[in-house]
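During the second half of the funding period, the structural biology subgroup turned its attention to how the target accommodates small molecules. The most pressing case was NAP, which had performed well in the primary screen but for which no bound structure existed. We therefore specified the complex as follows and requested a full 3D prediction, including the ligand pose.
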Amino acid sequence: MTPDPDTRISGVARLVDSCLEGSVVGSFTRIGPAVRRRLTRFEELERRPGRTVVLTGATSGLGRSAAGALGALGMTVVAVGRDLRRLDEVAMEIEAAGGTALPEACDLADLAEVAGLSERIASMLDHVDVLVHNAGALLAERTTTPQGHETTVAVHLLSPHLLTARLRPQLEAADRAKVLTMTSGGMYTEAFDLDQLEMGADYRGSVAYARAKRAQVVWTLALQAREPAGGIDLSLVHPGWAATPGVSSSLPAFSRALGPLLRTPEEGVDTLVWLSSLDPGVPHGGRLWLDRSPRPLFRLPRTRVSDAVLAEQGDALLEWLDRATQGAG
Ligand SMILES: NC(=O)c1ccc[n+]([C@@H]2O[C@H](COP(=O)([O-])OP(=O)(O)OC[C@H]3O[C@@H](n4cnc5c(N)ncnc54)[C@H](OP(=O)(O)O)[C@@H]3O)[C@@H](O)[C@H]2O)c1
């Protein structure tokens, strides 16, 4: 039987790791992977020629780093981005690393574009082994999409929901496909409340971002709960705090304060690339991963809910997302 990746860590290592985890700053900065690599072996990743990955947000920061790393494992990467010049650059990086690049332009805020993207991918690939919802942004100003939704919600929830639904035949055609969604430490600060998800006049970028990231947790667990045994594995991946164009532009003070303590993009995507490279039979779904181990879904008592409430939240969110994405494209 394929071992669960969470069973490799010894008792002492687990104790040290949980102290680090509790410290937040130690866990999320570069200290996290530096210590954890010493506590437990981070095995070399296996090359996976022929594995197909759809990766959003491939043109910058973490996504760009992941694109090269997945290419270096021989994978075929559908690199999704908005900027054609940067898409060309990332395609060259994937090919130079040894992978196959299929660059695709799409503004993920626009559901019509997401529907078009899904059609193009479905016509190119008969199966998708890994779908990575990495694109994300913390937007200082409230903006709305062509469909009238607040943009943070559109990019983090509506577009992943639609893309996952439209690519379901390709995901089901793969051997136990993986859907990985990039989460954030900001998520821990907000409880889920569907009525408060799309912010209006009360909009604050950091709150809208944290609520959308919390809702991605609810979404991932709800979809995982609906999967039959041996079906698709859906997980959340936390990069820690990494130095990227996104962080330096949206959180300049934070970026300056942490400076060299921020992870490199390569350190930030290590767990994402590791999960993408696992054998199809290795179970990882329904969990949140950081530094190759599962981490808590809640940190603050005011955000914590029981499993039963989480399931109810998931039902309500999926129903809302189905309605909001119905008829796209
Ligand atoms: N860096 C960190 O410390 C950190 C921590 C926690 C979570 N995260 C998460 O990690 C992910 C990547 O962040 P990053 O730090 O690498 O930021 P980044 O450098 O700003 O990269 C974000 C990527 O998302 C794309 N994107 C944003 N809005 C889009 C849209 N409407 N349509 C298409 N693509 C869009 C961007 O495309 P363009 O190139 O066209 O802008 C870019 O490729 C995000 O989900 C972020 O929330 C990052």
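Two results from this model are relevant to the next phase. The pocket of NAP is lined by residues 57, 59-63, 81-83, 86, 107-109, 134-137, 155, 182, 184, 239, 241-242, 244-247, 268 (CB under 6 Å). Residues 92 and 101 are 8 Å apart (CA to CA).
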